[in-house]
């Protein structure tokens, strides 16, 4: 019996360390700026070249509108329903109205919404430490320390022209 508990403990620690290692590999990736006639600029947080993603921000250059996608929300929510995401960086908060879309791979819906590129939350992301995203009682976070320049470039590319 003690061996079973010991084995379960070791497996739990290995699983958690694997999860932590995977989360530690997540990075902010900026794309589309290097293309002269890009029709979309992308800033996402996840593990490169994998399906592991917290979510992303996209815009058409100069459009003034940022589309937001968050990969996983809450098991309490249903695809097709409306939802509000609350983005916060320090004391700065923005509410984002959106909809929930099916995400069969995750088993919980994803969130899609839009914000003006000039929303103060984007400025806060250039100087804050952590981005928190709350949807349906679930909260996700992403560090911002290494992404300052990427957020500045993204905001400049998306700004209304």
What would your notes on this structure say?
By secondary structure, this protein is of the alpha+beta class. The chain contains three helices and nine strands, in the order αβββββββαββα. It has helices spanning 2-24, 120-125, 148-158; strands spanning 27-31, 41-46, 53-59, 65-70, 82-89, 92-101, 110-116, 130-135, 138-143. Strands 1-2-3-4-7-6-5-8-9 form a nine-stranded antiparallel beta sheet. The chain is globular and about 40 Å long. Mean pLDDT is 87; it is low at 1-23.
Quick overview of this protein structure:
This protein is α+β, with helices and mostly antiparallel strands and 161 residues long.
Sheet with most strands: 9 strands, antiparallel
Count of DSSP E strands?
9
Within the largest sheet, what's the order of strands?
A: 1-2-3-4-7-6-5-8-9
Would you identify the regions where 5 or more consecutive residues have pLDDT less than 50? 1-23
Topology pattern, helix = H, strand = E? HEEEEEEEHEEH
Number of helices: 3
